[in-house]
Amino acid sequence: MTKEFAGKIELDVRDSVSDWDAFLPSRAPEGAPNVLVVLYDDTGMAAWSPYGGRIDMPTMDRLAKDGLTYSQWHTTALCSPTRSTFLTGRNHHLNGFATISESSTGFPGYNSHIPPSNVTMAHLLRDAGWSTFWVGKNHNVPIDEWTAGASKKNWPLAQGYDRFYGFIGGETNNWYPSLAEDNKYIDQPYLPEDGYHLSKDLADQALKMIRDVKQTEPDKPWYLWFCPGANHAPHHAPEEYIAKYKGRFDDGYEAYREWVLPRMIERGILPADTVLTELNPMPDGTFSPTDEVRPWASLNDEEKAMFSRMAEVSAGFSEYTDAQVGRIIDYLEESGQLENTLVIYCADNGASGEGSPNGSVNEGKIFGGYPDDEAENLRLVDKLGSPDTYNHYPTGWAAAFSTPYKMFKRYTYQGGVADPLVIHWPRGIAARGEVRHQYHHSTDIVPTILEACGVAFPDTYNGVDQTPLSGVSMTPSFDATPDAPTNKQTQYYEMFGQRGIWHEGWKAVTVHGPVSGKGDFDNDVWELYHTEVDRSEANNLAAEHPEKLEELKALWLAEAEANNVLPLNDLQIIGNPKDYEAFIKMEFHQPAPASGQFVYYPGTSEIPERSAANVHGVSYKIAAEVELTPDSQGVIFAHGSRFGGHALVIKDGQVHYVYNFLGIPPEDRISAPVPTSGRHIIGVEFTKEGMGQYREGVGPLKLYIDDQQVGEQQIRTVLGHFSLCGEGLTIGRDSADPVSSLYGYGFDFTGGEIAKVVFDIADDAYIDLEAHLAAAMARD
Which of 136, 192, 279, 579 would be a feasible disulfide site paired with 175, CB 3.0-4.6 Å? Predict the structure, then answer.
């Protein structure tokens, strides 16, 4: 019972009076708006057309023309942390999201579990009478809760959302995504050859959810959080959208920066005297070398052509996704809903520099701790954007799309935290096509939506005292003049060890790049900028105003202590094998049984990589109990994709174990004839005898059928992960993009039966697969 019963209860129902209102949910206030939040990934302020950039965004242009464009809206410099602020309105460390879920560590600000004291906005809106939907990227499920058997208390439905359709984790293949619906993993509805792309699928699902509400509760408002995979790597787009940009970036990223700055000034995004910062603004030794930018003039013609193509693909990806958002906006207009829908269209951090100075055709190499091969990249340049690549542009484009600022994603300079934002709400905003310069942050989105919807923020929720909102409402800017003062006073920043703080028009930031491996935080050099007049942070005033700098440094520490920011972590996970190994050890790992054995079954859900038996950087054994017939074929197990993984497969009368090392050809493949019909144990043993140059495991791989060794060859294995997320372990089929060129999508096991597959990562030597399986069965 949600309200006090106001009817009458007597002995006889004939003498009693019912009261349905006591049991029905609350209704939203009369005239309450719908809310649509569109949150892109990895997009600098200078990329998109509303801000003067070369990437055409017709839908966003349309909304900006009839709404407000914000010139000083900021985020946290990374996706999971920013998204956590959209969930709760609290600072990212208070949410436990100092970093992405995949790199969580066991500290209060770093564990990726939003505490009950930080109620989500979706809970409040749903309780107040809104339907609530989350479509697309969900980067806020804790890494230890990704599995089918884990608690779902931090999945969207338990966070206040009526429906969820999208993917769990930081990224996914846009042609072959790892999808989830509500509380379970699902297969994609159709394949790329039939026209599938994730952005289109997400728009289809969003439209279905809204229409479902409107056909049964036409007066009920809704809140939709629409989070496409764009523009996070992998950059995937239909070729016709990529082709629209052919030649548009041939002048290079330095020329782009010179070209776009005057356009940003002309549009009123930046003051007329804004200075363009250096392309490589940080001193050597203060940042990771993988974040350097190669001067365009230093590239040869092949490199220039490849780098231009990488920008074209990213641009096509962005515009194609904007077109899918346009389908939603068109429907809202046609159905008469757009007038009273608060649309917030934005991005979660600056452009991504994770592609390294040379870009990549397989971003998974980064997460495997392995360098890119430029010759391999050049070989695949014509495949960029297609299912054959998992591509990312080089750091030069990240710097260009973050013009005029220093650096890009992960940095607390403006390049990492200054982002595009357009707000459109015809019924609630009288101004049309104006720019707003008030300083705001992603923590301000929740209080803005709550105020616009007339929903009060509670002191307690479900009996738990609530942490106050970290943000302030942006609604005063809806009616303000462009230069009206902001009502925000202070915002701290921290990401992977780099620190910053903005306070009343001044900003201090450390010359200490994220994941730089520097440590020694007590001796950090701090810079000081008067951002009220120096928007690009070009003029360091630390020497002129030492008192102001000390004031801001002290304020940062106070904010850090109040927001669970410590301890600082700048371990250099790319290019520093020692730091990489230390970081891997701090990450969450599925606890292994005492035996070291994991038992898996067919007909079950995909097991996310971080929760599956960890075969990275260790010796391992795998044993599959199978019942074979002359017709047996298909995948016995598969883990990963064409960009890295391994699989045990029966095809064309042969048993194959395939190890695909980060998509680098050729695949390591060891094969033997399929045994006769009946029950058999098929297994493999990898013995790590040493490490290669990049700490990849090196050693012999042996294939066994029953108690007989039937093959052996040397292989190398990945130290880190096959992928950042998705592409998990499946039994009896391959869940998405195939691991091996041996087979196509799915390739379900048929013509026999898989009883179990046992992964053994214990340190004992390979003795007898049947004995291992028998022991596992006895414990099952």
Answer: 192
Q: CA 94, 156, 348 angle in degrees (round to 5)?
A: 55
Q: What type of residue is 683?
A: G
Residue ranges of E strands in 84-183: 131-138, 163-168, 179-181
- Residue 518 region by backbone torsions, left for phi larger than 0, else alpha for psi between -120 and 50, else beta: alpha
Question: Left (φ > 0), alpha (ψ -120 to 50) or beta: where does 463 sit?
Answer: left
The β-bridge partners of 684 are 622, 703
431: amino acid identity, one letter: A
Instruction: Using alpha carbons only, give the angle 100, 101, 103 rounded to the nearest 5 degrees.
Output: 70
Could you give the CA distance from residue 391 to residue 386 in angstroms, rounded to a whole number? 9
Tell me the pairing of strands 434-436 and 68-74.
parallel
Quote the strand ranges of 182-315, DSSP E: 184-186, 222-227
**pLDDT confidence band for 574 (50 / 70 / 90):** low
The pLDDT of residue 779: 36
Residue 772 in this model has a pLDDT that exceeds 90 = no
Please state, in angstroms and rounded to a whole number, the distance separating the CA atoms of residues 677 and 385. 44
Predicted confidence (pLDDT) per residue in 732-766, tens digit:
999 889 999 999 999 999 999 999 999 998 763 33
HSE value, Cβ hemisphere, 13 Å, CA-based, for 737: 25
Determine contact, residues 86/115, Cβ cutoff 8 Å: no
Specify the amino acid at residue 111: N
**For residue 600, what is the enclosing H or E element?**
strand 597-600
- CA dist 9 and 283 (Å) reads 78
Q: Is 334 helix (H, G, I), strand (E, B) or coil?
A: helix
Average per-residue pLDDT in the chain? Answer: 93
Q: How far apart are the first and last CA of the chain?
A: 44
| Close Cβ partners of 257 (under 8 Å, ≥ 6 residues apart) | 46, 276, 279, 399, 400, 403, 404
| Interatomic CA distance for residues 437 and 73, integer angstroms | 8
Can you say whether residue 449 is alpha, beta or left, with left for phi > 0 and alpha for psi between -120 and 50 degrees? alpha
- The rounded distance, in Å, linking the Cα atoms of 17 and 15 is 7
